[in-house]
Amino acid sequence: CRKRRRSFPSHLVASSREVFLVFNILKSDQCQTCPYSNVITMFATGEGILAQKDAVTPDGLQQVFATNLFGHFLLVRELEPVLCHAGRTSLLVWTSSSNAHHSAFNLEDMEHRTGTQPYSSSKYATDLLSLALNQHYNKQGLYSSVICPGFVMTNLTYGILPSFPAFLMRTTTQKCSPTRLLSRLITEQKPESLDPYAKYHSLTSGLGNSYTRPHKMNITLETSETLHVKLLQLEREMRTKLCQREKETQTAGRLQKT
């Protein structure tokens, strides 16, 4: 199905720790007979990375920013032809966090080069970007939403918490993956009915029953639009650098042959 493909550094588009889920993609053997080939009806970003210390990528970007936000943004841009289709609805789901705080984000330093909370900053930027994408893509059938999987008991969690509190929390925390939360969003509501200003939290009652509840995000349309413009500018800069790098590589290759 992928006859057209624009090149971009693989470590920017999908880092080694980035995981994404794609549902309802038409099989390759259906492409010639089905009129809706090359269509993704739902796309979800991965959780990203939670790092104590940030680092810089070979392209000069902050690693947490590149992995948790910019890489996903580039991937969505690359998938526009299959996400946006007139007459069909697609849902883009961002995996955010309850640790996404406005105080950690600085619009003048969106990569968080000078801050100390890169994860929180990147997740707050995710919330902002989702709102901006709704403004730009809803008319093309693409809707963006934000989820928070909540506190999930994993082997990592058990290693951090003492055994007794961990045992108590097993019955009151999430035992399901974000995939089940996504399923609830799809089966219970249409994408166009989801609130673009809300983050959908996956929660568990004291009896161990899971449910979903929307919470208003502390975001503004003006800030989200400004972030979107900055990300588009950064994309153009990175593409220019990539083209220049390819030219230099080709020139070096020709010189070696001579």
From TrEMBL:
<dbReference type="GO" id="GO:0005789">
    <property type="term" value="C:endoplasmic reticulum membrane"/>
</dbReference>
<dbReference type="InterPro" id="IPR036291">
    <property type="entry name" value="NAD(P)-bd_dom_sf"/>
</dbReference>
<dbReference type="Pfam" id="PF00106">
    <property type="entry name" value="adh_short"/>
</dbReference>
<dbReference type="GO" id="GO:0006695">
    <property type="term" value="P:cholesterol biosynthetic process"/>
</dbReference>
<dbReference type="InterPro" id="IPR052834">
    <property type="entry name" value="3KSR/17beta-HSD"/>
</dbReference>
<dbReference type="GO" id="GO:0047024">
    <property type="term" value="F:5-alpha-androstane-3-beta,17-beta-diol dehydrogenase (NADP+) activity"/>
</dbReference>
<dbReference type="InterPro" id="IPR002347">
    <property type="entry name" value="SDR_fam"/>
</dbReference>
<protein>
    <submittedName>
        <fullName>Hydroxysteroid (17-beta) dehydrogenase 7</fullName>
    </submittedName>
</protein>
<dbReference type="GO" id="GO:0004303">
    <property type="term" value="F:estradiol 17-beta-dehydrogenase [NAD(P)+] activity"/>
</dbReference>
<dbReference type="GO" id="GO:0000253">
    <property type="term" value="F:3-beta-hydroxysteroid 3-dehydrogenase (NADP+) activity"/>
</dbReference>
